[in-house]
Design a protein that fits this description.
- By secondary structure, the chain is of the alpha/beta class.
- It contains 8 helices and 11 strands.
- It binds flavin-adenine dinucleotide and iron/sulfur cluster.
- Iron/sulfur cluster (SF4) binds next to helix 4.
Length: 256
């Protein structure tokens, strides 16, 4: 089941990367005591770290493009009979967690690549940012917010993203990834033009969760949303092919 989704709370929306759907689901489930903890990823410096949340907050983390190495070990360490967990995990992380915990609630942001940390630092330097002073970085709608020790630098997302070529600046494991849409998740969450989300409910557990949080989300059926998903799939497959061809051409040149 696909739906367009967006939080009803403007303060939450203002801090979100797209429509604020993930943080709204997290907060609503904590308010209703349907989960005891939410395991998320936040930016730290130019990298990421795991955040274990047990109280409602407007200041939950927004999207950042480093791969969070500590998410899976932290999630696994939190399993116990007394904890009801919601885990926000990328599709590859979700598959690992699902193997160990078939019944845990998993929400996956759709993911076509995470960026190589060396390249992230290189691009931030190129934008005139002292990476040693970076405390955290987040994408909020159309901007990348770089929190430095004493000031926030705002870089238009388009400017930041223009420095990266698909598959060439990603982590190596992303180049063979076939599961961008979160096959092991209960709900997968797409970005919809940096303003709202498209959600795909994959399991009956996901459908129950959506019923519980429905009042906090603006939900609507959307044909244009499904067209957007198909478009993302086609463009990313085309980019994948193009980057593969460019590698072949470069290798051929090297051989010649
Ligand atoms: C690395 C990455 C790549 C993405 N690529 C695409 C794409 O190509 N196409 C697309 O449609 N959508 C993509 N998304 C999803 C999209 O950017 C939004 O994260 C998603 O739509 C949720 O939006 P939101 O407003 O509900 O997020 P928010 O309410 O702002 O919440 C963001 C959530 O993402 C989690 N998160 C943040 N950074 C990471 C990270 N590095 N790893 C794991 N979880 C993280 C946080 O825990 C938080 O719960 C990507 C997300 C990530 C993290
Ligand atoms: S592209 Fe695939 S392998 Fe890479 S971080 Fe995203 S889900 Fe994981």
């Amino acid at each position: 089941m696909y739906r367009c989704a967006e939080t009803t709370d403007i303060e939450v929306w203002k801090r979100a990367s797209s429509g604020g759907t993930i943080r709204t689901i997290a907060n609503e489930l904590l308010i209703k005591k349907l989960v005891t903890k939410v395991i998320m990823t936040r930016s730290r410096g130019c990298d990421t770290e795991t955040l274990v949340v047990d109280t409602v907050s407007e200041i939950l983390p927004a999207t950042w493009y480093s791969y969070n190495e500590s998410l899976v070990p932290t999630a696994l360490s939190q399993f116990s009979a007394s904890e009801h967990l919601m885990i926000v995990a990328l599709p590859c992380q979700a598959r690992t967690i699902r193997e160990v915990a078939p019944n845990v609630l998993i929400i996956s942001p759709v993911c076509f690549q995470t960026l190589n940390p060396v390249d992230i630092r290189r691009v931030l330097r190129r934008l005139g940012i002292d990476v040693e002073k970076v405390e955290s970085v987040q994408r909020v709608h159309d901007d990348v917010l770089v929190n430095l020790q004493d000031v926030v630098r705002i870089v238009p997302f388009r400017v930041f993203w223009n420095h990266f070529k698909y598959n060439q600046h990603s982590n190596h494991f992303c180049r063979s990834c076939k599961d961008h849409f979160g096959s092991a998740a209960d709900i997968s969450v797409f970005d919809n033009r940096h303003r709202s989300n498209i959600i795909c409910v994959r399991t009956s557990r996901g459908a129950l969760v959506l019923e519980q949080v429905r009042a906090a989300l603006k939900l609507k059926r959307s044909v244009s949303g499904i067209v957007t998903i198909l478009w993302k799939l086609v463009t990313h497959k085309a980019l994948h092919l193009a980057s593969g061809l460019s590698v072949i051409v470069r290798n051929d040149r090297r051989l010649a």
